[in-house]
Specification:
The chain is of the alpha/beta class. It has helices at 14-23, 59-69, 76-95, 128-141, 207-215, 245-248, 275-289, 303-309, 311-319, 376-397, 421-438, 445-468, 473-494, 512-515, and strands spanning 3-10, 29-32, 49-50, 110-111, 121-122, 146-149, 153-160, 163-170, 176-186, 219-220, 225-232, 252-255, 294-297, 329-338, 341-343, 355-357, 362-363, 520-521. The protein has three domains: 3-224 and 339-406, FAD/NAD(P)-binding domain; 232-334, Succinate dehydrogenase/fumarate reductase flavoprotein, catalytic domain (Flavocytochrome C3, Chain A, domain 1, Alpha-Beta Complex), CATH 3.90.700; 421-512, Fumarate reductase/succinate dehydrogenase flavoprotein-like, C-terminal domain (Methane Monooxygenase Hydroxylase, Chain G, domain 1), CATH 1.20.58. 36% of the residues lie in helices and 17% in strands.
């Protein structure tokens, strides 16, 4: 039985919840989250929210820092909108009850991260995302028009002619439902699980991008996948990020074998260089020395400072036998943030009527070829709000509701229970390892061609499995990371230069004459 809402939102991070709160003022909103309500990339964001709040800073500086980090590929309009509207969105978040770190005089404590020319990062110690998620969920609980569907995974978007009218979804009880909306919003976050090593939680399987691509929406700039330079290197640690704010407060990167600092050889900002530069430098030094990791040294700052400023990171590292005050942290780069995504305008509208995309899943052009640190939570706040304003106007103007009786409901056909789950687990492991080895921090045309050929075979195996057996969450996620991997390889193969996060040994130079443009892909439907 189909269920209809005014708005269907897939994803419960900062962008999805910001949108839902605003849209619920004018209609019913369903919010689908793949696991618990709070499980999202937002929940694990450590650093903070970049906003111009001090007298010695300016919007012009923040705009310039963003464009420099993005290697000039940014959509300047999107950058200006984000930077200029950011402080107001931050204050709206504070008004909802979000509590951020403050100085003794009550002023917000601003820190600094790589690529920023000024201290402008608002944070809640080193667990900013957790506080943002808490505040937004609490506000949503006070809004009766918002209905949550936890443990619910979107499978595919539903189109009625050209317009998107909802999605098929796998519910917590294992049944598949048809969920309809006058407007459908993708806020599904990133796709870090497409790589073998990532800072992202398990939910980050690129669902929104894959679903939008299969429905025929335009996708852009998937070659620009950001690798965070510093993920904890420990056999028992899983996906634990070591925030860039540690380098912002004076952390030094050193070789594991000799203790020598090396970032001074790569960039005038040393450890505060943009993330793509730092990640490539670490990758190069690890390959040169044979070391399995590098060290981030915070020992010169003292235990009191570290415990006060980074309580969560300090405590977590202690659980793994590492005391930041007396020994360096072993770190390696890991897949962190998707700078490309579903193409949108500056109000979240995609190329398909009825479909919006906001947050990490979207490609507004804000990040260009590389995201500036702490612009991601900011983006979710700004574009979640902007998209909601437009959708509210659409609802007031009388967007026609999809008629449940006219939309084809899910049909499992002759699909039966799987007796070959090893296919899923094997392909999951092979695909992620393939992407790490061939489509990682440094690329070549030969590696990309190998990845392309193997992905074609994997995607065909996954497609056959999908249509033969009943749908499970594991199959949904495997199918999606395979499609995202295809998009990354396809975009990377097309770009014949090195820019931002896309670095290829075949074309090591920047080519503004031919390649100062987006890489756009769309599937014919």
């Amino acid at each position: 039985m189909a269920r209809a809402f005014d708005v269907l939102v897939l994803g419960g991070g900062v962008a999805g919840l910001t949108f839902a709160l605003e849209a619920a003022k004018s209609g019913s909103v369903a919010v689908l989250t793949k696991r618990s309500r709070s499980e999202s990339n937002t929940m694990y964001a450590q650093g903070g929210i970049a906003a111009v709040l001090s007298a010695d800073d300016s919007t012009e500086r923040h705009i310039e820092d963003t464009i420099v980090a993005g290697a000039g590929l940014n959509n300047r309009e999107a950058v200006e909108i984000t930077v200029k509207e950011g402080p107001e969105r931050l204050q709206a978040l504070v008004a909802l009850g979000a509590e951020f770190s403050r100085k003794a005089n009550g002023e917000l404590d601003l820190t600094r991260e790589g690529g920023h020319s000024k201290r402008r990062i608002v944070h809640a110690h080193d667990a900013t995302g957790k506080e943002v998620e808490r505040a937004l969920l609490a506000a949503c609980d006070d809004q009766p028009k918002i209905t949550f569907f936890p443990d619910t995974a979107g499978i595919d978007l539903i189109r009625d002619g050209a317009r998107v009218v909802g999605a098929y979804a796998l519910l917590e009880n294992g049944t598949i439902d048809t969920l309809l909306g006058k407007v459908t919003v993708l806020a599904t976050g990133g796709a870090g699980k497409v790589y073998l090593y990532t800072t992202n939680p398990d939910v980050a399987t690129g669902d929104g991008v894959a679903m939008a691509y299969r429905a025929g929406a335009k996708i852009a700039n998937m070659e620009f996948y950001q690798f965070h330079p510093t993920c904890l290197y420990h056999p028992d640690a899983k996906n634990f990020l070591i925030s860039e704010a540690l380098r912002g407060e004076g952390g030094k990167l050193r070789l594991r074998s000799t203790g020598e600092r090396f970032m001074t050889r790569y960039h005038p900002m040393s450890e505060l260089a943009p993330r793509d530069v730092v990640a490539r430098a670490i990758d190069a030094e690890m390959k040169r020395t044979g070391d399995e990791c590098v060290h981030l040294d915070m020992t010169h700052l003292g235990k009191a400072f570290l415990v006060e400023h980074f309580p969560m990171i300090y405590a977590t590292c202690r659980e793994f036998g590492i005391d930041l005050a007396v020994q360096p942290i072993p770190v390696v780069p890991a897949a962190h943030y998707m700078c490309g995504g579903v193409v949108t305008d500056t109000f979240g509208r995609t190329s398909l009527p009825g479909l919006y995309a906001i947050g990490e899943v979207a490609c507004t052009g804000l990040h260009g070829a590389n995201r500036l640190a702490s612009n991601s939570l900011l983006e979710g706040l700004v574009f979640g709000h902007r998209a909601a304003k437009v959708v509210v106007e659409e609802l007031k103007a009388g967007v026609p509701a999809p008629a449940p009786g006219t939309v084809r409901e899910w049909d499992s056909g002759a699909a039966g229970p799987s007796d070959e789950m090893v296919v899923v687990s094997h392909n999951w492991e092979e695909l992620r390892r393939l992407m790490w080895n061939y489509v990682g921090i440094v690329r070549t045309g030969k590696r990309l061609a190998r990845a392309h050929r193997r992905l074609d075979l994997l995607r065909e195996e996954i497609r056959e499995y999908y249509w033969t057996f009943k749908v499970t969450r594991d199959v949904i996620e495997l199918r999606n990371i395979a499609d995202v991997a295809h998009l990354i390889v396809e975009c990377a193969s097309r770009r014949k230069e090195s820019r931002g996060l896309h670095y290829t040994l075949d074309y090591p130079a920047l080519d503004d004459h031919n390649w100062l443009r987006d890489t756009v892909i769309a599937r014919e439907t």
